[in-house]
Amino acid sequence: MIENNQAIVLWQRCLNFIKDNVNPTAFKTWFEPIVPLKYEDKALTIGVPSPFFYEYLEEKYVGLLRTAIYKEIGEGTELMYSILTDKTNHITINIEGTKRSQALPAQAPIHNGNKAPNPLQAPAVQDLDPHLNPNYNFENFIKGNSNEFSRTVAETVAQNPARTFNPLFLYGPSGVGKTHLINAIGTRIKELYPEKRVLYVSAHLFQVQYTDSVRTNHFNDFISFYQTIDVLIIDDIQEFAGVTKTQNTFFHIFNHLHQNGKQLILTSDRAPVMLQGMEDRLLTRFKWGLVAELEKPDVELRKNILRNKIRRDGLTIPESVICYIAENVNESVRELEGIVNSLLAQSILFKREIDLDLAQRIVRKAVRCAEVKPLSVEDIIEKVCSHYNVDASTIHTKTRKREVVQVRQVAMYLAKKHTDTSSSKIGKLIGNKDHATVLHACKIVKDQVEVDKAFKAEIEKIEAGLRQK
Ligand SMILES: Nc1ncnc2c1ncn2[C@@H]1O[C@H](COP(=O)(O)OP(=O)(O)OP(=O)(O)O)[C@@H](O)[C@H]1O
Question: Is 179 labeled as ligand-binding?
Fold first, then answer.
């Protein structure tokens, strides 16, 4: 709500002066969005869409603003800013940028509330759709050995956002509940702190929004929007690997939010140390708070998840079938859910009971599909490192210790032999080496296999392990 007509008139005069002294793009970007709010006691208060916007004005245009105000309104006039992003967060700052107070009452939003995380419309909204999936909550997240620690820290963060673990970095293989858990955190925070601006976004969507904003000249809006978030949840951060500009932009958003006491929650399919193609300064920040792993569920947890899903779906499935599925499907929870869905579909389609025989046929088919899943370089790194009992992170360091060099060479050799990945990509993923190093490693290992029986047996043992994946 604009509180004072005089403010509009005075600000319009200032704008006319400013317009003559900056280029049209800067005027449109940095001055048109400003809203005059009130003029009282020789102080003009203007509304700006975000803290970032204020910082930018202070850094780049404070001289021009001061001149315009003194010239058009009079010497000694104070300029006060009000951040319009959140009704609970109205700070005012004088033109020297020193005095802060809670002087302004809450105001109505300047723009209409948006319902999607569209950064181009979003800077000054209050009702932000957090894009959380309400079906993913703590109540239906089943606890087990493999996720107990992550679940506990997730609950702690939800109770006290930005007070405990910031950022919270959750990692683990596909389908083990990362997305579920981070949605649960967001949902709990919204229940406990409804005024907080929580946003869930996939790394992929973030990247698309960023690219779009650059293409359509709305980059500042994009940045401003993300800098207004109180709890930013980004899923599958590994997608930023190799995309430098997106990483760079995210780096600045991360810093701004972290410095301003906002919570960041990130997930990835691998630990920070295994994130190739990611800038070091980001990797360091990912480790600032807490890094927690979600492992593949053990058999007990698989049974409990199955029982829970079956109950929720209103099905009755014999305990022997539950045990059979839990013991034979051990990749991810998503896979377990897929089996239950197939059982249900088959029993409806063929009008038959869900029994062990049906379960066995469905599981066999699903497990066969898993067998033909191609090996990845990451699978090979994992197997080779565990065979030699070396921490996977060491092969990405620069160390030239003989035993580490050998592990690296074996991993490169097997990656070349068992995947379609190019030598240069393999090099990047294993110790950030070039393709010539990979080819050299392959030759060394191959030569040794030909003359050293014990070494040959060792390699065959690792290869057998790879086939069991
Ligand atoms: N502990 C759990 N209790 C109940 N459901 C679970 C649990 N873990 C995972 N699930 C369910 O398994 C499915 C897959 O989980 P989710 O999408 O969270 O995995 P993810 O780790 O994010 O996988 P991806 O990395 O592939 O995105 C979801 O339907 C989720 O609700």
Answer: yes
